[in-house]
Specification:
The chain is an all-alpha fold. Helices cover 79% and strands 0% of the residues. The radius of gyration is 17 Å and the shape is globular.
């Protein structure tokens, strides 16, 4: 019964800790990040394993450990505001990871975010002070760096959806 489930959870936690230790090449950093992930998953109402899996993918795609949970918090606001769940959060995180892993933003990531319901091109255009068509042209020319894209999109999400996760956790 419950004891067996507890043993299974402990074993999964150990595997997660080992995996994060390898990804971060630092056991203490891994424990700290897993604690942050656990706290976030609990506060946001997401499954710990799902969030840990998304976080691992973000690390593998080049996110710094210190930015994983803050980024997940911002993306969870969008996810909840869009009426979606863990799958959408993972899709948005994967899109941001793809951007992180490249030097320039491509239309593929914009399409992935849009398919998740996020008006990414509009947020990006607003942040850049451009029209949507001008922003598309900039993307096609490779004129938007990954750093600028990530900052602009995260800022846009915060402006539009900031606080949604916290508000829903209070209900």
């Amino acid at each position: 019964g419950a004891a067996i489930k507890g043993i299974g959870a402990a074993a999964r936690w150990e595997r997660l800790e080992a995996s994060f230790t390898v990804l971060l090449a630092n056991g203490e950093k891994a424990k700290k990040l897993l604690k942050e992930i656990d706290d976030f998953a609990t506060d946001a109402g997401f499954g710990e394993e799902s969030i840990a899996s998304t976080a691992k993918r973000m690390l593998a795609l080049g996110f710094e450990a210190e930015k994983v949970v803050p980024t997940l918090k911002i993306l969870s606001d969008a996810t909840y505001a869009l009426g979606s769940g863990e799958e959408t959060l993972a899709q948005l995180a994967r899109s941001f990871g793809m951007i992180q892993n490249k030097a320039k933003l491509s239309s593929l990531e914009i399409r992935l975010m849009s398919s998740a319901g996020l008006p990414a091109i509009k947020m990006l255009a607003d942040a850049l002070g451009k029209t949507v068509p001008e922003t598309f042209q900039m993307i096609e020319k490779g004129a938007i760096s990954s750093k600028v894209a990530i900052e602009a999109l995260l800022t846009g999400i915060q402006k539009r959806y900031g606080g949604t996760t916290e508000a829903l956790s209070q209900t």
